[in-house]
Amino acid sequence: MTEYDGFSYDREREIYSAARVRALESLLIEKGIISSKTVNKVLDYFETEMGPFNGAKIAAKAWVDPEFKARLLKDCNTAIAEMDLPLGMSGAEGEHMKIVENTPQVHNLVICTLCSCYPWPTLGLPPYWYKDPTFRARAAREPRAVLKEFGVELAEDVEIRLWDSSAQIRWFVLPQRPSGTEGMSEAELATLLTPEAMMGVALVESPTA
Fold first, then answer.
1. Residue ranges at the known binding site for Fe(3+)
2. 115 is catalytic
3. Beta bridge partner(s), residue 173
4. Residue 132 CB-density burial (10 A; 0-12 exposed, 13-18 middle, 19+ buried)
5. Domain limits of the chain?
6. Which residues are recorded as binding Fe(3+) (predicted)?
7. Of the residues 17, 26, 35, 115, which is catalytic?
């Protein structure tokens, strides 16, 4: 799942927002603050070096290595530094990351009530709906209903915990390992993980489902 259509908004807003971005970019180039290649270079970096493929590797390792998982839950950035991941995992947008674990009793959901704070190194660029005021408000107010709209139906006895990402701490989720994956390698497990699952708005599907 890559899109969420649980709320509607004026599609002209995207056109208006894109026009504002182009105008701002042009002004910054004109003032000599950035070059014409700067924005594309930054976007390319966060699409090819920093993204959900990193989060998937981290979660998969936690699934197969209990000692690593314990270190990850205690000190996320330090544990991640043990892995062979791109330089800068604790850099821009990832200075202070924390991960919380889903269990049969607890389901975690990450939002940002103020803006769109997001752990770019582990999840990539935030999706459009994550930044939408409607999602942010509704998820905080009625998380169970919003999760159901995403296709995540939880039993009433499962506790939902909300984690509010901010400039100080950026959260992501360690999903539950699905059944039927006992014989899979760490690399194979990583292919099952999605950014939505590591945000808490999706579950990881069993390969036998």
1. 112, 115-117
2. yes
3. 100
4. middle
5. 9-48, 51-190
6. 112, 115-117
7. 115
Please, are residues 151 and 201 in contact by the beta-carbon 8 Å criterion? no
Active site residue 76: no
Q: Has this prediction a pTM greater than 0.70?
A: yes
Token duo for residue 28? 């910054």
Query: Can you give the pLDDT of all 209 residues of the chain as single tens digits?
Result: 445 555 555 667 667 777 777 888 788 888 888 887 877 877 777 777 888 999 999 999 999 999 999 999 999 999 999 999 987 788 777 889 999 999 999 999 999 998 889 998 999 888 888 988 889 999 999 999 999 999 999 999 999 999 999 989 999 999 999 999 999 999 999 999 999 999 999 999 988 76
Show the tokens assigned to 165: 């990402």
Q: Where are the alpha helices (DSSP H) in 65-107?
A: 66-74, 76-80
Asked if 106 and 159 count as a contact pair (C-beta separation under 8 A), the reply is yes
